[in-house]
Amino acid sequence: MCNCVSRLSTHRAVGAGKREDQTQTDTQQKEPELVAGPSQYGSLWPLPQKVHISDVSFKLSSSNFQITDAKESSAGPSCNLLQSAYRRYYEYVFVGPKNQKRGRDQPAGPSEVTELQVWITSPDSDCDSFPTESSDESYELSVDQPVAVLKAPKVWGALHGLETFSQLVYEDEFGAKTINSTVISDFPRFAHRGVLLDSSRHFIPVKVILANLETMAMNKFNIFHWHIVDDSSFPYLSQTFPQLSEKVRNRDGYRIRYFLRYRPNSIVPTEHRFTSFETVPRFGIHVTFPPPPPNRKSNPDIQKFMEQQGFGQDFTKLESFYIQRLLDIVTTTQKGYMIWQEVFDNGVKLKPDTLIHVWKGNQQSYQREMANITSAGYRTLLSSPWYLNRIAYGQDWQAIYKADPQDFKGTDDQKKLVIGGEACLWGEFVDATNLTPRLWPRACAVAERLWSAKEVTDTNDAFNRLAVHRCRLVERGIPAQPLYTSYCPREYKGI
Amino acid sequence: DAAFIRYHRLIFPDHTADNLSVSAGHASVNAESVWGVLRGLETFSQLVYQDDFGTHFVNRTDIEDSTQFQYRGLLLDTSRHYLPVPVILKTLDAMAYSKFNVFHWHIVDDPSFPYQSRTFPNLSNKGAFHPVSHVYTQSDVKRVISYARMRGIRVLPEFDSPGHTNFWGRGQSDVDSLLQKRHPSGTFGPVNPALPSTYQFMASLFKEVASVSTFFTVCFCRKSNPHIRAFMQKVGFGVDLPKLDAFYMERIVNITSALNKTSIVWQDVFDYLNIHRRIWRTMIMDFMVEVWKHGCYLCEVRRLTKAELRVILATPWYLDQPGPTHNWARYYVVEQKKLVTGWGVNLWGEYVDASNLAPRLCDERQTSSVERAFPRLQDFRCKLLRRGIQAEPLYVGHMQT
């Protein structure tokens, strides 16, 4: 079934695959060994909550397979979101040349799946809305012959289910598309599963952002945290303050002019606004409040202001004041908001529904921070172990995979306040030339940690599934870098 | 001629030859050989710049240039991950832009054997990741060599032995018997220095490779087993393993000399024999040594040059080890002296394939004062991008277009 997994070892790797039997080859190793071989879960990533794949296999033919709306579904041909997803996933499933259309009257073969029916069960499919924090992303998938059925309360679950379906399809030794009889019932463990990209340290062309959004969808991420502006540049074209940046499109592409540097005494929020994109939902604002630059402290206007307000020399009171005003402004826009942890650490007064983003420290310190934040009753997100801009030699995906946002000393109620996490790829050393390989497949480890059940921790099985999943990303045109010595049946072609 | 066309396109990417007019003056490149001309063309192309209106300019310039080192190499590892030929060719382009002149092609190793041998086709049939899609045919290899030659780059394919030959056994039933089964589980390698058939096999393989390419390297890593020990008793080495190693090494070096080739060995060979100096002194050492190990690598270079061996230094430039980009500075200040023939930049392939090769390689860690170099390097990186090479960013910043 999997013909591109390879074996992990420090000095030699043996390609396990269809040419070889699955004997475990062994050598003296200095570090614990991951043993490759096909997983019982195929190449599913992230692993669904409940999945059973049987041994009975069916074939799929590109000329005789369709994704359709079930009769009883509350979404139909007018639901653009689903219709374009059907087209997209048909292409993903049948990578490569397609057959000519067979005669219409030809019946399905005895072991052929000819249709995937998508059934949105809730009367309001959510087709025309944006997803929110409380959206239902669950789905049920049952693959049988001749019809497979994907049931979901909302379109969001259907999108996830389509991805899962596409991951169940594999090629047999003759190259025929095959899928086994399967029953899956799935939903995410955490509601906030995000990726942060930084387009201020280096400008990221829109094309690259879109390709990464597609990859996020393939990994069931549902938040794109766009760190759009910062000290280095302000590429966001504001309608209200157009002089903040000037984006001039000429025939060679974008030309960005630096215009505004961060000025401590002007109220210009480093706002992050998400674009609406049907496969990656969410709309909100994240306010950052980095430590004040030194010149602020000596600025006479600020000094005077602080005296007037009765802050004396206490800059944390100034921070409080600023952040409060900012949050008040944001509240009027009726968007959700979240803040980086420093604001909490500095004792600023916060509203009870504030979401706090934990990003600092080693395991001990971020676990302590999570405990503190949740015991104070705030909701929280974890990023500390998932700073993907920090690279290392070797398979660092394993450490990323092992980190768990609910792994800290606290009550069950506290743990419920953890709503998820984000993989962050800060941009000091990252731009369009190296973003995608650096982000994937390491971010996949975060994806599974945030979606799958808490008990899914077997790195061996993860390796086997992830190696094939990575080759699948490559096949879909995403230059996801290798986990270790290995090969993909279809290597990355773009250079 | 090919170079003229190539550089014309690089300098004037938007223009065709007909609507080009040049005002005043002319430039000339003088060199003793075509290789010098190639380097001069590259330098010329780097002098040309454009103003905001797109007019091309070059300032009056006088340059006298020569190289400090004959061997300026780059290693790519196509055994840990198969690199499609277009990716290798693109790398050769980037090498030419940076005036590299040696492509050290670590073509096979334990994990896979993608070199399709005419004499022993089963080596790749059984040893490659995939016998059809993940091999380098004879014509692939010739193509790489010819593409490199047009850019003034020599290609050195490397065949390690007796160790790192895990996959050789799978492909060749005679080689099977050559290899020692290490465990009942069925792993193979290294090749068995005790069998005469080993050397016949090596000779045939190397002869074929030599006909395809002008140079190649051999590595030397070995372990022991009962067959070996029996052989050693037979030829009177007793339990003196170094004697066996020397024996093997000599045979291999003889094979390569007979083909009129120079061997390059990894420092392990020298280190090992250095400890067993009595053996070493009786051997005729006519090979170059590549220094790659950490620690006091300059001490090693000193030892080698004292023994009158030519040295290639690679330790400071192990690009497979990533780090924040501004660490490129640590590659910039290493001292070398006379017998040091050159340096090698090595990008091992455990974690590298076509998806991430270009940005990791073109990390510009291969270019002496760090502060003065930074702005030039940034500029050069932009040039590489414009020429289609995915060079990673050095730090925060942006490119014009």
From TrEMBL, chain A:
SUPFAM superfamilies for the chain: (Trans)glycosidases, beta-N-acetylhexosaminidase-like domain
Superkingdom per UniProt: Eukaryota
Enzyme Commission number: 3.2.1.52
InterPro entries: Beta_hexosaminidase_sua/sub, GH, Glyco_hydro_20_cat, Hex-like_dom2, HEX_eukaryotic_N
Family, as annotated: Belongs to the glycosyl hydrolase 20 family.
Primary role: Hydrolyzes the non-reducing end N-acetyl-D-hexosamine and/or sulfated N-acetyl-D-hexosamine of glycoconjugates, such as the oligosaccharide moieties from proteins and neutral glycolipids, or from certain mucopolysaccharides. The isozyme B does not hydrolyze each of these substrates, however hydrolyzes efficiently neutral oligosaccharide. Only the isozyme A is responsible for the degradation of GM2 gangliosides in the presence of GM2A. During fertilization is responsible, at least in part, for the zona block to polyspermy.
UniProt protein name: Beta-hexosaminidase
TrEMBL record, chain B:
The EC number(s) this enzyme carries: 3.2.1.52
Alphabetical list of InterPro entries matching this protein: Beta_hexosaminidase_sua/sub, GH, Glyco_hydro_20_cat, Hex-like_dom2, HEX_eukaryotic_N
Keyword ATP-binding carried by entry: no
Pfam families: Glyco_hydro_20 (PF00728), Glycohydro_20b2 (PF14845)
Catalyzed reaction equations: N-acetyl-beta-D-galactosaminyl-(1->4)-beta-D-3-sulfogalactosyl-(1->4)-beta-D-glucosyl-(1<->1')-ceramide + H2O = a beta-D-3-sulfogalactosyl-(1->4)-beta-D-glucosyl-(1<->1')-ceramide + N-acetyl-beta-D-galactosamine; beta-D-GalNAc-(1->4)-alpha-L-IdoA-(1->3)-beta-D-GalNAc-4-sulfate-(1->4)-alpha-L-IdoA-(1->3)-D-GalNAc-4-sulfate + H2O = alpha-L-IdoA-(1->3)-beta-D-GalNAc-4-sulfate-(1->4)-alpha-L-IdoA-(1->3)-D-GalNAc-4-sulfate + N-acetyl-D-galactosamine; a ganglioside GM2 + H2O = a ganglioside GM3 + N-acetyl-beta-D-galactosamine; a ganglioside GM2 (d18:1(4E)) + H2O = a ganglioside GM3 (d18:1(4E)) + N-acetyl-beta-D-galactosamine
Keywords, comma-separated and alphabetical: Disulfide bond, Glycoprotein, Glycosidase, Hydrolase, Lipid metabolism, Lysosome, Signal, Zymogen
Family per record: Belongs to the glycosyl hydrolase 20 family.
Subunit field text: There are 3 beta-hexosaminidase isozymes: isozyme A (hexosaminidase A) is a heterodimer composed of one subunit alpha and one subunit beta (chain A and B); isozyme B (hexosaminidase B) is a homodimer of two beta subunits (two chains A and B); isozyme S (hexosaminidase S) is a homodimer of two alpha subunits. The composition of the dimer (isozyme A versus isozyme S) has a significant effect on the substrate specificity of the alpha subunit active site.
Protein name: Beta-hexosaminidase subunit alpha
